[in-house]
Amino acid sequence: MQILNVQIYIRRVLLGLVVLAAFLGTGGSALAARHHQHPKIPPPPPIVVAQINVSSQNLFLTVNGWPVGYWAVSTAGIGYHTPRGTFQAQRLAKVWFSKKYDNSPMPNSVFFDGGIAIHGTYHLKALGRPVSHGCVRLAPENAERLYDLVEQYGRSRTRIIVTD
Predict the structure, then answer these.
(1) 3-state DSSP call for residue 12?
(2) Taking the CB of residue 41, how many other CB atoms lie within 10 A of it?
């Protein structure tokens, strides 16, 4: 938990530096406003961040930098691939069935890379092990919690980070 506090502190310091840099870029004075020069304000930071660690098969969820969940997941098994990188939530589906894999249920899907999603699963015994076809599987109640947060704050304010 101590590492988590350090990460949150570093993020807040970096955000403060970005805001300060934007302010100083205007000369930090009212003169800039009189000449109709507006500081370039950086876009707001993401509110919902789902960090998925493929090695540990866990998802760490934060809202406004505060931890709200740390859950076991299942990512891609042998012969399949869960994409790595930073993604924005692309679309949501409360009820979805896989068109590619035998109409398998994918409740509370948050799609982030084409047909790849974070979604609920009923194969709870497999959580914590890489067994999916590429999606990130969660316990149904955790998938619902993530889905509700993305719906509440918006896809554009959601980041999904998948690392090794």
Answers:
(1) helix
(2) 10
Neighbours of 7 (CB within 10 A): 15
pLDDT tens digits for 134-162? 999 999 999 999 999 999 999 999 999 99
Q: Is 46 helix (H, G, I), strand (E, B) or coil?
A: coil
**pTM of the full structure:** 0.74
- Residue 69 clears pLDDT 60, i.e. is over it: yes
Q: What is the DSSP letter of 33?
A: H
For tokens 């599987």, name the residue.
137
* CB 121 within 8 Å of CB 140: yes
Q: Give which of 64, 109, 111, 88 is closest to 159, Cα–Cα.
A: 88
CA–CA dist 82, 147 (Å, integer): 19
- Which tens digits make up the pLDDT trace of 74-88? 999 999 999 999 999
Say which residues have a Cβ less than 8 Å from residue 75's Cβ, sequence separation at least 6: 52, 54, 57, 82, 130, 132, 134, 135, 136, 137, 162
DSSP secondary structure of 82-142 = PPPEEEE--EEESS-B-TTTTT-B--SEEEEETTEEEEE-S-GGGTTS--BSSSEEE-HHH
CA distance 111 to 160: 10
